[in-house]
Amino acid sequence: MSDEQFEFDPARLIRTMAKNGHNLLIGTQYHAHGDGWCELALPYSEALVTDTASGILASGPIFTLMDMATNLSIWLKTGTFQPQATLDLRIDYLRPAKPGQTVIGHGECYHVTRSIAFIRGHAHDGDPDKPIAHVAGTYFFTASS
Amino acid sequence: MTTIFSPYAQSMGFTSERDGDGRLVISMPFGDGVRGRPGFVHGGALAGLLETVAYLTLADALGEDDKPLLKPVNMTATYMRGAVESTTQARATIERLGKRIANIEAVAWQEDPDEPVAIAQINVMLDRSGR
């Protein structure tokens, strides 16, 4: 893909990605995007809870949601479609998501170097001012020398 | 002690066994449900595996008579190699088991435990207030 023709459409990409693989299993959906940021949605599913009695969503799917949202934010920041791999990702769980609620994951890329992208993000279950989790991490561009 | 898997862990197809030292090892078979970019396991699935083995190893160490609420505080996953289309295994070491906090390190590998695909530092709060 040449850079000058680059027009990255996260909504279309997520629709494609959600048709199979791990994104299909957890049910990732597109929510919104802008310059250097992307939001994805994780609808509640009983198949993804940590225990049946509480109905609380497991943290694994939230980690995947944040990985995906921050990943996409890098392409929205750079305007290029460079292959990249997660170097590390830290998640802080502020509180559990309310059972039944869709979780929204907001990822943003706030800095890039030739080799590394720096990202952060947060997740909420309805009210953006009351986050359930925060993330911070780095990705490296696998094609960079 | 029988391993009780969460609905999430069952959705992921996790299975449990003991290694030669009696340590808990959780396996994640490769399948479409854990696939990320073509040819590789999704980093989020690896994180889910690391977290699952950490919590099960912690529950195992606490034993049948001590069942505090385990509340996730945070987790840092570091990715070291691409995990390819085969089974991934993971085990965890509890670095410190305190009254209120447990610090756990989990490691995931495919062929060789000395060549991890990912590791994680996981901090858990042990809440006994309601028990």
Fill in the keyword field for this structure.
heterodimer; A: about 140 residues; alpha+beta; Thiol Ester Dehydrase, Chain A; six-stranded antiparallel β-sheet; B: about 130 residues; 2 helices; about 20% helix; globular
Number of domains of chain B: 1
Low-confidence stretches of chain A: none
CA-based gyration radius of chain A? 15 Å
Residue share in helices of chain B? 10-25%
Could you give a short account of the major beta sheet of chain A?
6 strands, antiparallel
What is the helix/strand order of chain B?
A: HEEHEEEE
Structural class of chain B: alpha+beta
CATH class of chain B: Alpha Beta
In angstroms, what is the radius of gyration of chain B? 14 Å
Specify the number of helices of chain A. Answer: 3
Describe the structure.
The complex is a heterodimer of chains A (145) and B (131). Helices cover 23% and strands 36% of the residues of chain A. Chain A is α+β, with helices and mostly antiparallel strands. Chain A has a single domain (3-141), classed as Roll (Thiol Ester Dehydrase, Chain A). In chain A, strands 1-2-4-5-6-3 form a six-stranded antiparallel sheet, covered by helices on one side. In chain A, strand 4 and strand 5 (116-124) form a beta hairpin. The longest helix of chain A is centred in the middle third of the chain and has 20 residues, at 59-78. The model of chain A has no long low-confidence stretch (mean pLDDT 92). Chain B is of the alpha+beta class and 131 residues long. Chain B has one domain (7-127): Hotdog Thioesterase (Thiol Ester Dehydrase, Chain A, Roll), CATH 3.10.129.10. Chain B is built from two helices and six strands; from the N terminus they run H-E-E-H-E-E-E-E. Chain B has helices spanning 7-11, 43-62, and strands at 15-18, 24-28, 69-79, 88-97, 101-109, 118-127. The longest helix of chain B is centred in the middle third of the chain and has 20 residues, at 43-62. Chain A binds chain B through residues 20-26, 46-52, 58-61, 63-65, 67-68, 85-93, and chain B through 6-12, 32-36, 42-45, 47-48, 51-52, 71-79, 82.
